[in-house]
């Protein structure tokens, strides 16, 4: 049997030929070829010379080996992994665990520290016995208030439960190799540590120890994630414009945004286990592309607002707006070819057409029909939409899907001429919080 592609993008309903005036003209996509080629060439060069860290992360086998061996060693005898992080330091891991955690393997995983809401922390403390928990505090800078304040509290509770001396055996700090207060604390307390590579920004760090350690503790095959990532990246680097899915994805979103004012990007997986992928994408797309100035320092005020939706759930919430509201959106569905588990429906009421038409159908079949129906209705209403197809939800396809979205984001940044890898708007807020809370050296 020929090997299945881990992913392909069907963009036909993004085009004017299919959806009318709100769609992109094929000729405009062809005319964008030179710029797309240039963006691809730049990423190819960066992958070869290592100047954009996340592109070469899957080749850093030593990091992956360290992650797997530490996960094995540190989770022995424990029940729960508590990941303490925020933004790029937890959304990727959350996505992986939600999509891929096997029911019968690995630690239970809980996430906390992306909010300083004491009721959420109280809920965690009520439901997790810290005696059998491993804390993984994740912060690249090592100083972010939400995870660090949460860590200080949980560390204190852990010490009360297992003793000052023993607590260090139940903490892993994922942080910068040399700098930041978390690094200082980890060295002082003798915690096991994992590196956040200094050339990889938070929202692009899912395939570094930031995402891989929680995934490995959860029983997920991390090698599969990296294999899928490499396959999609290499296919992107070697496939010419026109047939290159990530270039098409970025090109179409750029044209919809720049020529038709479509400033909203909706990601709508038809799979409950992929719901958090949309939250991860929301940060990636929003924080990478939402920039006041371009790379030359000129004020441009760019950005496409990412919206996280879920099929079929949001058919009964958002779809009315998408079908009939303003023409300001481009929608991308994710369709899964086959579900890992499925059920065929019984036929208890053969005389009642209202339910008997479902007899013998599987849920996967119904979900795919719902996705198609939504796309057909949108197309009929002239609304641009596309589909990312994956054959199933597996480490390979999820690693590939996340890489596809990171590549598309990087290409989109090239087209918009903005720096995908900084976040001055986030840093500004962090500085103001420090000043408000009286940190020395920070003034309002
Ligand atoms: O993408 C980013 O860089 C940010 O979202 C960071 O991940 C987030 O602010 C958390 O930062 P840190 O890992 O330094 O705690």
Automatic annotation (TrEMBL):
InterPro entries xrefs: G6P_Isomerase, Phosphoglucose_isomerase_CS, SIS_dom_sf, SIS_PGI_1, SIS_PGI_2
Active site: residue positions: 287 (proton donor), 316, 430
Assigned keywords, A-Z: Cytoplasm, Gluconeogenesis, Glycolysis, Isomerase
PROSITE patterns according to UniProt: P_GLUCOSE_ISOMERASE_1 (PS00765), P_GLUCOSE_ISOMERASE_2 (PS00174), P_GLUCOSE_ISOMERASE_3 (PS51463)
Iron-sulfur among keywords: no
Entry EC no(s): 5.3.1.9
Any one GO cellular component localisation term in the record: cytosol
UniProt similarity note: Belongs to the GPI family.
Gene: pgi
This protein's name: Glucose-6-phosphate isomerase
Pathway entry: Carbohydrate degradation; glycolysis; D-glyceraldehyde 3-phosphate and glycerone phosphate from D-glucose: step 2/4; Carbohydrate biosynthesis; gluconeogenesis
